[in-house]
Amino acid sequence: MQYYFKQYLFYFAIVLITWSSQAQLKDTAQWKALFAVGVNYATTDGFVKGSYAKAMNFPTVNLGVQHMIKREYGVKLDYGFNRFKNHEDTPEFKINYSRINAQFVFDPSNYIGFLPRRFRTVLHAGPGMSFVKPLGTLGDNKQSFVNLLGGLELHYAINEKVSVYTDVAYIYGLTSLDNYDPVQNGLGAFNGSVFNLTFGLAVSLSGCQYCD
Prior knowledge:
Elements: H1 2-24, E1 31-42, E2 57-68, E3 73-85, E4 94-106, E5 119-134, E6 143-157, E7 162-174, E8 194-204
Antiparallel strand pairs: 1-2, 1-8, 2-3, 3-4, 4-5, 5-6, 6-7, 7-8
């Protein structure tokens, strides 16, 4: 009898700890800092003819600050850095692609009934500027242009202050590539779109604004 009592007591303690952890989990903080790293893909139509980057490039680094105006929506300012490298079948180049974007953030998690409480989905989109800088002797082909960014984040809360997340984003370049004659003179120039896949941390910078 004593053995079974200890078993039940153990199971009850586990359930109580789990319930307590869920109960203490707060909703979205008003201010968050975001940091993520990952990989990128640069579309082939953004390079001069006969030139394109590897299918998967590293690194991609994103840094951002997010402010939630209400529980479901807010704004974000973020900076991103990408490095492209030529595919082995094309002439050699390396490109630094950086961007800065002001974005609208929408969290529809409360409308998605099947998500566990610790999971959040975040949609984000907004305009920005892209800066392309080829490395080495190709520096004359640097460019800057307007972009539009859209993405989806999936967050898992470790606790009320920190969550891990993954972000899938698409950055569309609003420009056209110059005509280079000969084409070789345009090596390293890029005006296309970029897909990003990153993994990172979101850290609350303030107390919870929307606690129950």
